[in-house]
Design a protein that fits this description.
This protein is α/β, with parallel strands linked by helices. The protein folds into two domains: 2-146 and 302-334, Alpha-Beta Complex (Quinone Oxidoreductase, Chain A, domain 1); 159-281, NAD(P)-binding Rossmann-like Domain (Rossmann fold). It has helices at residues 38-46, 92-95, 141-144, 147-160, 175-186, 199-207, 238-247, 269-274, 288-297, 315-322; strands at residues 2-8, 11-16, 26-35, 48-49, 52-53, 58-59, 63-70, 79-82, 85-86, 106-107, 124-128, 132-134, 167-171, 191-196, 212-215, 228-233, 248-256, 278-281, 306-311, 330-334. Strands 3, 7, 8, 11, 12, 19 and 20 form a seven-stranded mixed sheet that branches. It has a six-stranded parallel sheet with strand order 15-14-13-16-17-18, sandwiched between helices. Strand 16, helix 7 (238-247) and strand 17 form a beta-alpha-beta unit. The protein starts with a strand and ends with a strand. The mean pLDDT is 96.
Length: 336
Amino acid sequence: MRAVTVHGAGDLRVDQVPVPEGGPGTALVDIVYGGVCGSDLHYYHRGAVGDFTLREPLVVGHEVVGRVRSAPGWEPGTPVAVHPATPCDRCPECLSGRRNICRDTRYLGSAARFPHIQGGFRDVLAVPVGQLRAVPEGVDLRLAAVAEPLAVATHAVGRAGEVRGRRCLVTGAGPIGALTVAVLAARGAAEIVVSDLAPAALAVARAVGATHTVLASDLADDRAVVDVDVAVEASGSAPGLAAAINATRRGGTVVQLGLLPPGTTPFPGNLLVTREVELRGAFRFDHELDEALALLAGGLPVAPVITHEMAVEDAVAAFDTAGDRAVASKVLLHFR
């Protein structure tokens, strides 16, 4: 079968690998769609994500949906989303209900441990059966392909606390930032200001619920971006974090969602002190995948986030397109 594999920085291939076999507690899923994530692009371009560096070829991909081939307790052909994490369920974080920050988790398509955890961009994926989530009736698999990044956004908004009636800022309007906008709108945020470097990304943000958009270069001069209650930093950049803190009111909250570059990141820390701004991290998700699927079933308008769909044979072109923020938001691979 086919598998999209990164062999090193700039070296992405569609390899032939053996079809996995089932077993007790194992589900086999015929993958239909896979969404190209920023972390997949980092492995492709740099051979690393943050501090996680490739030490062997890695099948990438963790945003995958498909149909059950075989699984205990599941009808073959059932449309499913795959939860990409296998927490240990033993560490203090798991036992306290924070499985998303499990210290010994296994995550599809990740070089965080060695041997690496091979990912989901393959024709047939084997995972523990507990990681399957039924796609609700009425939600097609193409739209369900954004359930995983939507769960990331849902978790980030949850980390911000109550947002109903609040003034919010999202810095960075890539796929995760745009989906964060959609969740903020669904949860009743009064204003949602979005900044980005790319006009095309801001257009997607407006389509999913932003009430005001601004180019990042003009952010400091925009009077609409003053004294926000909540800022979600989704760009993963030091300027984005600085802008989020600068725009947040006294006593407000900043959620750092985007992964920052390795090493130390400078930011206006004195404002955290003098304004008593709360800075919180948001990492992956747990039960929020179920919430994301429910949001999709309820008609959350996230279709504009999906801008391209390409065949798995064209994986290199798909990854190159996904890296061009002037034209692309979420790019899907289709496994036909």
